[in-house]
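Input.
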Amino acid sequence: MDEGIRPLSVHVASSTGRMGPAGAVRGIARRLADMQGMFQDAAATQVMVATGNPVVYRYFAADTPDEAPHLRFGTTVVYPGTVGNEFFMTKGHYHAQERTPEVYFCLRGRGCFLMETRDGSTAEEFVEAGQAVYIPPGWAHRSVNVGTEEFVFFYVCSGGVGHDYATFADRGFRKIVVERDGKPIVLANPRFA
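Output.
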């Protein structure tokens, strides 16, 4: 038993993804400027950064120990919007401890989880409120808002997993999600051609 670690209860607002109370939760907002080079349309990115630098997503994490055997949990909110025709998304990452799975549960909105392995296997799962996705060990994952409202989901994974964002800094994921004729479609990322 971990000495000094007490049970923790937080409130999760399923409509907004916000968690509380203050002191039991930490949060961060990622603006478009924090995601330079991740969207295909660099010119549109620059214009949007210069004219308002929108928040693309934010996440909230319960203040649990970030080490095994504890669990980390929280919410992510991906806002609606596009850069060019590419939907707003999270940075995406591998777990630094790659043998660690994760579970996502959609609370609100519509989204797509892009997933891939280092050997080039890919998968995507489109979800709506009430659906859960299991991300196996070794699969990188990125969350994309494909709707017109906030895409809100709950996550849980082992503490101490760490995040490898650097792998995707230059080319991104092997797949992208774009809007075509009012619908989301998954395409091969041209940076891998």
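The domain at 11-192 is CATH 2.60.120.10 (Jelly Rolls).
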